[in-house]
Known about the structure:
The protein is mainly β.
Amino acid sequence: EVQLQASGGGLVQPGSSLTLSCTASGGDFTFTDYSMGWFRQVPGKERELVADISWSGGIANYAETVEGRFTIGRDAAKHALYLEMNRLRPEDTGVYYCHFRAIYTDDDYWGQGTLVTVSS
Length: 120
């Protein structure tokens, strides 16, 4: 079973940058069998998609609120997913979860979440 470990969150000032990482492990794991994404959740609200990337890495989609500031990327050799966040705003604050979806079974896997706080 796929296990995801997210890291990289922290407290930063508005306008700063931060990069989140998510490392996958477990069993006979083929990285390109998964589409991937990052979600954000704040208290009292549903988890929302921030960015996702196709199984091939060729197609990325972003929430309108982060378009042009965030970049999702992946490294198949390292079994890692990244989210580079630039020009951070207070409204970017939340717990960020990495997510993998198996393209053949639609099984979903979630990381444990990493907290990003943007505040002056």
